[in-house]
Amino acid sequence: MMESKQILNKLKGRKPGILGEEDFFKVSVLLPLVEKDGETHVLFEVRASHMRRQPNEVCFPGGKLDKNDFDERQCAIRETTEELGIHETDISDVIPLDYMVSAFGTIIYPFVGIIEDIDKLQPNPDEVGEVFTVPLSYLKETEPDRYKIHFEVQPEDGFPFDLIVGGENYNWQTRHMDEYFYSYDGHVIWGLTARILTHFLKVTAIE
Fold first, then answer.
1. What is the pLDDT of residue 13?
2. Domain range spanning residue 86?
């Protein structure tokens, strides 16, 4: 009984997290709102064509959490300033959205914020091939195309089926994920960017 008490005392006050999160790749992104022609727009980047990962794809400013970042919010701001060539003071009202845990071992921390002056942007050509904006009104009024991605379990060769009930006929649980697609002026917004955008539009919708 004494050992049980010691175990419980060690756990008291512990803040629960995501099991195994120390092994996850962690990134923060900013969904930037800008004023253009008297209307609120959402700003997007197109990744530079020479990027190793996802070249020419549409994304939000963001990147990997750095050891020098104070927290996920500061990471989103830092990455935005580096990619768009602006100062931290040019970004205001940075507020967290729901974070996501992807099926591929990544935790994404999205934020929404306001970029005060779009004319100050000086995109970094090492990372950004193009910047464009989409009117928020268009995104609110446009239903994205939706398709499903199915995930299947494929045990590796030599998997010990003899150790589990059901063996090779074990009924693995499978799942699917909705994939969203928005099209605007020749650009296609999909993947995690479209998922974050859809979440933002949902939580900010006026009933």
1. 85
2. 22-153+175-204
Instruction: For residue 54, give Cα distances in angstroms to 14, 75, 163.
Output: 38, 20, 40
Q: Is 131 exposed, middle or buried (CB count within 10 Å of its CB: 0-12, 13-18, 19+)? A: middle
Which residues share a beta bridge with 47? 128
191: which residues sit within 8 A by CB, 6+ positions away?
57, 179
- The 10s digit of each residue's pLDDT in 114-163 is 999 999 999 999 999 999 999 999 999 999 999 999 888 889 999 999 99
Q: Specify the length of the chain in residues.
A: 207
- The count of domains in the chain is 1
Name the percent of the chain in helix, strand, coil, to the closest 5.
30, 35, 35
**Residue 185 token pair:** 């002026």
User: Which alpha helices (H) appear in the chain, and where do they start and end?
Assistant: 2-11, 72-84, 136-141, 191-203
Read off the CATH number of the domain in which 183 is found: 3.90.79.10
The predicted model gives 86-101 an average pLDDT of: 95
User: Which range, of 27-31, 54-58, 78-82, averages the lowest pLDDT?
Assistant: 54-58
